[in-house]
Amino acid sequence: MTPVLDIDALLDDRGTEIIVCCGSGGVGKTTTSAALALRAAERGRKVVVLTIDPARRLAQAMGIEQLDNTPRPVAGVDPAGGGTLDAMMLDMKRTFDEVVESQASPEKAKQILENPFYVALSSSFAGTQEYMAMEKLGQLHREAQADGTYDLIVVDTPPSRSALDFLDAPERLSSFLDGRLIRLLIAPARGPARLMTAGFSLITGALTKILGGPMLRDVQTFVAALDTLFGSFRQRADKTFALLQANGTAFVVVAAPEPDALREAAYFVDRLTDDDMPLAGLVVNRAAPAPRTDLSAEEAITAAERLRSGDSSSLAAGLLRLHADRVRMVEREQHLRERFVASHPQVPTAVVPAMASDVHDLAGLRAIGEAMAAQD
């Protein structure tokens, strides 16, 4: 029998300080994160939810027209439980700027922040969003530890082609900033002229042809200014990884009842296990609601055929076919979930039925939270 993910036990456990919602893109991670955060707040926790580029309707659902890099209170949270809820949206570049400003002198920081290569890197480099999501998580956690403003941080991970990008990107970015090419480019600014050997000149000549002279100079100026920060990027990545492995962190993998999404969820569960990261369980989102009758698909199709041949109500026949389609969809999704369970029998699971309409207010988020908690 599949173990059930007890959402309320997870939210009520004061030892749970961070919940990371992860999974492939388009499976409802952002809505799930917001619903978990709201439910936790209304059960007495002091919560901040960090969302990544939420749909406008979700920002409106939380009563905040403009989310930004600063936590803002969500109005309408039931105060009976004594909890609070703040929401914020990751500003990737602003977070990167904050890292630079906190680690460099004002002069050095200004030099870095105005560099064209840095502007491109901080705004669009592959993996920067994932790295900065974890950087912001670290900032929030340090502040929560220092002043007790929050006792639970809920993180919506960035939308990625692959769920694994979230765990790999911080390492990729820190490796890039600490890589051989960057070290080579920084050598002229660091050392004596003798470093400018014929071999080095050959390499920079080739790079000039590829990147163009101005671009290469921007890169060299950037890495020279950033030299003192290279070690800190590696350190920060290591600290973030350790935070994700800590007992106070819980990963909730979110998937849709589709082959690709559940395949990504399986990869993610395996990766979390390999990296000793604490997995709370799987949320299967937007599942087809089960019909309220035991009439099978085959029986419904047979009855529809009889009605048609008897020249009876075409409406009744159409409804029977719709019922048959619904039953087959439910059976298909059940089969997909059973395949996941067969390979991961230890993973607690919660199944959330598809809502009748898009979430557009706190009531909709509450309904999702209740559905996650109400497992058989």
From TrEMBL:
InterPro entries named among the record's database cross-references: ArsA/GET3_ATPase-like, ATPase_ArsA/GET3, P-loop_NTPase
Top-level taxonomic group: Bacteria
Gene3D superfamilies the UniProt entry points to: P-loop containing nucleotide triphosphate hydrolases
Limits of the ArsA/GET3 Anion-transporting ATPase-like domain: 17-294
Gene Ontology MF term list: ATP binding; ATP hydrolysis activity
Cross-referenced PANTHER family: ANION TRANSPORTER ATPASE-RELATED, ARSENICAL PUMP-DRIVING ATPASE ARSENITE-TRANSLOCATING ATPASE
Designated name of the protein: ArsA family ATPase
Higher taxonomy: Bacteria, Bacillati, Actinomycetota, Actinomycetes, Propionibacteriales
